[in-house]
C-alpha cells in the first residue's frame, strides 16, 4: 500500500501514526466503541451492589420497590438477571475489542514493515553507505514490534481510563454533588504528573531506541563477519565490544526505569487522599442521615474503581513513550526523500538494441573528490567493449551510474538515444544483466539462485544457463544437485562456484546488455578458460561491457578503454593498444611475465 502524502511540517508521533493509519479509521472507531462499552458495563457491578444493599436495608422502600416490585426476592431476582446481562455484555465487548485492537495492531505493523522496506529499496545506495544494516533492521523489526505492543494493549488501557473518569465523575456529581470533588481532586494531579512523566521519559526512550539500534548493528556485523573474527582470533575483543554496547543499552533503559518505576508509588499516595476522604466524609454523611447506605456503598466502590486503575498509567505511559519513540524512527524512514526518480518512458526489453552513449559525465561520492571527470564513451549496439585500469580509477562506479544506482552530477547517458533518466527504472535495469565481482547469493537452493529474477523459469532453462556458465558439472556433484541449499550469502560454495552461479543467473535473464565486473576474478585458470569460451557465445548480438584486471579475458573485445583517475586515457583494440606502448601495453607485459614492476598500494 502507499502511505499518505508526506509533509515537511513536524508533527507529534501520534499524529503521524494516525495520519498513516487513516485507511483503518472504521476499524479504529469500532475498537474504540467496544473499549468504551466494555468499560461502561465493567463499572456497572458496583451500582448493582449498591442497589442490593439498598434492597436488604430499605426492603419495600428501596429504589427498585418504587418501580412496583415490593417483594425482596423479586427485587434481588431483577438484580440477578441484570447482573447476568451486564456481565455477558462486558465479556462480549471485551472479546470484541481485544480482537479488533489486535487485528488493527497486526495490520498496521504489517503495512508499516512492507511500506518501510519498499521505501528502503527505492533509496539510493548512498543512503545505505551511511547507515548500518543492524540499525535498519532495528527499525524494521524492533521499532515496528514496539508499536504493535502499544496498539495491542496500551491504546485500550488509555481509552478505558478516560471512560472510567468520565462515567464515574458524572455519577458522582449526579449522586452526591457535595462530595464528588473529594474523589475527583486527585485526578488533575494525576494528569499533571502523567504529562510531566511524558516530558521526562520521551528523550530517555529516544536514547533507548538509539542504543538498541547500535546493539543490533554490532550483532548483525559480527554475525556477517564471523569468519573474519575466527581467523583473527578476536572473539574476546568482540565480546568486549558487544558488552560495551549492551551495557550502554542497559544503562539507558535504567535511566528510563528510574522515572517510570516511581510513577505508581507517587500516584498511590495521591489516590489514598481521595479514597480516605470519601470513606470518612461519606460515612459521616450516612451517620447524619444525609446519604443513603446504598449510595454510600456505590461511592466507596466507585472511588476505588475510579482511582486505583490510574496506577496502571505508569505501565501504559511506559508503553506509550516507547511506541512514540519507535514511531518517530519508522516515520522518519518513510519520510526520507528519494533522490533517484524513475523516468516515464517505457521501453520493453525486446525493443532495446543496446547502444550506450556516455557524454561528458562527472560524478563524486558524498564528501569525496570527483572520481569520474568529464568522461565520454560510445558503445555501439551488439559490440563487446572492455574497461581496464588500476584500482580506484572509477570502473565499477561507471557500472553503478549506468544502472542508476547513483545519479550523475553532470553530463548525459543515453540508451538507444534516450536519456536513461527518462527511462523507467525497472525497464532500464531489466535490460542490463550484471555479474559483479562481489557475488551475493541468497539463502536457498542453487536452482532458486540461478532463477532469481525469473521465478517462472523452467528447470531445463536453468540447466541450460548453468551449462553455458560451466556450472552444471559441479552442481551435479553437490549433495542434492540443483536443490542443494547454498547457505547464507552462498557460504557453502567456493568463490569460483558462486561466481559461476552468478554468471548463470545473468545468462538466464538474457538481457540485451551484459556487464561483467571482474566476472572471472574468483575462478581458477581452467574455469576461466571455459568461461571465456562460453562468453564468446553469450556476447553474440549483445552489448557487453567487461571490466577486468586479467587482460587475457578481454583481449578479443571490439574496443578496450583504459581508465585512470576517472578519465579515458587510452582506447583501441588489443593490438592497437600494444602498438602504442602505453599503459595497457605495460600492464600486458607485466601479466605475461615479460617484465617485472613493483606495484604500490
Commentary on this structure:
With 601 residues, the chain is of the alpha/beta class. It folds into two domains: 13-334, ABC transporter transmembrane region fold; 341-431 and 545-595, 3-Layer(aba) Sandwich (Rossmann fold). Helices cover 60% and strands 10% of the residues. The protein is built from 21 helices and ten strands. The strands form two sheets. It has a six-stranded mixed β-sheet with strand order 6-7-8-3-9-10, with helices on both faces. Strands 2-1-4-5 form a four-stranded antiparallel β-sheet, with helices on one face. A hairpin with a 5-residue loop joins strand 1 (356-364) and strand 2 (370-379). Helix 2 packs antiparallel against helix 4 (72-122), helix 3 runs antiparallel to helix 4 (72-122) and helix 10 packs antiparallel against helix 11. It is elongated, with a radius of gyration of 36 Å. The chain starts with 12 loop residues before the first helix and ends in a 9-residue tail after the last helix.
Summarize the structure.
InterPro entries: AAA+_ATPase (IPR003593), ABC1_TM_dom (IPR011527), ABC1_TM_sf (IPR036640), ABC_transporter-like_ATP-bd (IPR003439), ABC_transporter-like_CS (IPR017871), P-loop_NTPase (IPR027417), Type_1_exporter (IPR039421). The chain has 601 residues and is of the alpha/beta class.
Amino acid at each position: 500500500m502507499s502511505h499518505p502524502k508526506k509533509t515537511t511540517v513536524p508533527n507529534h508521533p501520534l499524529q503521524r501514526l494516525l495520519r498513516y493509519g487513516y485507511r483503518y479509521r472504521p476499524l479504529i472507531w469500532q475498537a474504540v466503541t467496544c473499549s468504551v462499552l466494555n468499560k461502561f458495563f465493567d463499572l456497572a457491578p458496583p451500582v448493582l451492589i449498591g442497589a442490593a444493599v439498598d434492597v436488604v436495608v430499605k426492603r419495600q422502600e428501596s429504589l427498585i420497590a418504587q418501580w412496583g416490585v415490593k417483594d425482596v426476592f423479586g427485587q434481588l431476582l431483577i438484580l440477578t438477571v441484570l447482573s447476568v446481562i451486564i456481565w455477558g455484555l462486558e465479556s462480549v465487548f471485551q472479546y470484541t475489542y481485544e480482537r479488533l485492537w489486535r487485528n488493527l495492531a497486526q495490520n498496521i505493523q504489517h503495512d508499516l514493515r512492507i511500506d518501510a522496506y519498499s521505501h528502503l529499496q527505492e533509496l539510493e545506495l548512498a543512503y545505505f553507505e551511511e547507515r548500518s544494516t543492524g540499525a535498519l533492521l532495528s527499525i524494521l523489526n524492533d521499532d515496528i514490534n514496539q508499536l504493535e505492543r502499544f496498539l495491542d494493549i496500551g491504546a485500550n488501557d488509555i481509552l478505558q481510563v478516560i471512560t472510567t473518569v468520565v462515567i464515574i465523575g458524572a455519577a458522582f456529581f449526579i449522586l452526591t454533588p457535595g462530595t464528588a470533588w473529594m474523589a475527583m481532586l486527585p485526578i488533575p494531579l494525576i494528569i499533571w504528573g502523567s504529562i510531566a512523566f511524558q516530558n521526562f521519559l520521551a528523550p530517555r526512550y529516544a536514547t533507548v531506541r538509539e542504543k538498541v539500534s547500535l546493539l543490533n548493528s554490532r550483532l548483525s556485523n559480527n554475525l556477517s563477519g564471523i569468519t573474519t573474527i575466527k581467523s583473527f582470533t578476536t572473539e574476546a575483543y568482540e565480546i568486549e565490544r558487544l558488552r560495551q554496547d549492551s551495557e550502554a543499552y542497559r544503562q539507558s533503559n535504567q535511566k528510563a526505569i528510574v522515572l517510570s518505576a516511581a510513577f505508581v508509588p507517587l500516584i498511590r499516595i495521591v489516590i489514598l487522599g481521595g479514597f480516605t476522604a470519601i470513606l470518612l466524609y461519606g460515612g459521616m454523611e450516612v451517620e447524619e442521615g444525609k446519604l443513603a447506605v446504598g449510595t454510600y456503598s456505590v461511592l466507596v466502590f466507585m472511588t476505588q474503581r475510579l482511582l486505583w486503575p490510574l496506577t496502571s498509567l505508569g505501565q501504559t505511559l511506559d508503553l506509550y513513550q516507547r511506541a512514540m519513540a519507535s514511531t518517530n524512527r519508522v516515520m522518519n524512514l518513510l519520510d526520507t526523500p528519494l533522490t533517484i526518480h524513475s523516468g516515464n518512458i517505457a521501453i520493453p526489453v525486446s525493443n532495446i538494441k543496446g547502444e550506450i552513449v556516455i557524454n561528458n559525465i562527472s560524478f563524486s561520492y558524498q564528501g569525496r573528490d570527483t572520481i569520474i571527470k568529464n568522461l565520454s564513451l560510445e558503445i555501439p549496439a551488439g559490440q563487446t567493449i572492455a574497461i581496464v585500469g588500476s584500482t580506484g580509477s572509477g570502473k565499477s562506479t561507471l557500472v553503478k551510474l549506468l544502472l542508476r544506482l547513483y545519479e550523475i552530477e553532470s553530463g548525459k547517458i543515453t540508451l538507444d538515444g534516450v536519456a536513461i533518466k527518462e527511462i523507467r527504472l525497472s525497464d532500464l535495469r531489466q535490460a542490463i544483466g550484471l555479474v559483479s565481482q562481489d557475488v551475493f547469493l541468497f539463502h536457498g537452493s542453487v536452482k532458486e539462485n540461478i532463477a532469481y529474477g525469473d521465478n517462472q523459469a523452467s528447470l531445463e532453462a536453468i540447466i541450460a544457463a548453468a551449462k553455458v556458465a560451466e556450472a552444471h558439472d559441479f552442481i551435479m556433484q553437490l549433495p542434492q544437485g540443483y536443490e542443494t541449499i547454498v547457505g547464507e550469502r552462498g557460504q557453502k560454495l567456493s568463490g569460483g562456484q558462486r561466481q559461476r552461479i552468478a554468471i548463470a543467473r545473468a545468462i538466464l535473464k538474457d538481457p540485451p546488455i551484459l556487464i561483467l565486473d571482474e566476472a572471472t576474478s574468483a575462478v581458477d585458470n581452467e574455469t576461466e578458460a571455459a568461461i571465456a569460451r562460453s562468453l564468446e557465445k553469450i556476447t553474440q548480438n549483445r552489448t557487453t561491457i567487461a571490466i577486468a584486471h586479467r587482460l587475457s579475458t578481454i583481449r578479443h573485445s571490439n574496443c578496450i578503454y583504459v581508465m585512470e583517475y576517472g578519465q579515458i586515457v587510452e582506447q583501441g583494440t588489443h593490438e592497437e593498444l600494444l602498438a602504442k606502448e602505453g599503459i595497457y601495453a605495460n600492464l600486458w607485459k607485466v601479466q605475461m611475465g615479460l617484465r617485472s614492476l613493483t606495484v604500490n598500494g
